[in-house]
Predict the 3D structure of the following.
Amino acid sequence: MSRESSNRTIPPSPSSPTSPTTPSSGSFRPTRTRRPSRGSSTLHSQSHGRSYSQSQPYPARPSAENGAAHTHANLPPPLEHGEKRHEGNGYAQPDQQAQARLPPGRALSTLPVLREEHRYCKRCHIVKPPRAHHCRSCGTCVLKFDHHCPWIGQCVGAQNQKFFFVFVIWAALFCLWTFTTLVGLNARAASHSGKSVDPQHIVIIVFSGLFALFTVAMFTTHAALISSNQTTVEHIAVRSLKERETETLDVLYPSCWSLAERRRERLTWDAEWGRIGREGNMWWLGDIRAHWEQVFGPRVWTWFLPIGSCKDKGLEYPRNPRFDADGRWLPRKQWPAELQ
């Protein structure tokens, strides 16, 4: 028998148009189910491979009385608590009324971010250390990723955070010194001799003033981040959590005269969980000096000089004991006894 004749399939019988066909060679090759045309009353569930008709309900669940076993092949997915079946697509959707009856509270994420499956980088195909992120500009994962800085042409992370901060400090001092000296000298020269100001000095004064504002803002921002032991990425996540909390309070207390109630509700959440930026920070150690020593080292006189090396290696970090081993924020009643 030739190869072409062996690969021919037996046409399905009219009684079972969707039944799989059996090739004469012994291999199994199912027949594709035709998609219903527009306006048809048949709904096809692609996730379970079943076709339902709007005129007939979903298959009934087998009960324990008849001894039928629950199989995934012939039943829709089980419903969770507070969910209802939507007849349009066969998937379980949350019941809005059931969610509305839930007690309001702080919307926290239960994602175990420290597990390896949540730290896997799909681009580099590695398991990232904690606090590491992938930089699209550099095309690699960066330890303790803070941000990609175009001024230095690379990312700011564990290995160069100290030198970046020192660079920002001295750049701010230089811009302030240039701005103040040029303004003072030109003002004194104009008052004594009456000569006009040099246009080049005006341009330098403008640029030095702008860069002074920028570098001072950068210094203030990164000093606050180091004090709280956060990176820019982690600070954005904390800010998003605060915004969601504010939106929840807006729903609970929409009136502008409910400031006292909003404050009491926030204090209640803080009493239950702790503050978002402090106790709710996974890397908060409770000591600002310890946070600075983690980046700059124990010698204070070397903090503002571009010498030495970074103490931070970027591989391991002490975790806030208010979080579990998987990185989930615990309520106050589950904290260690000395922290409650």
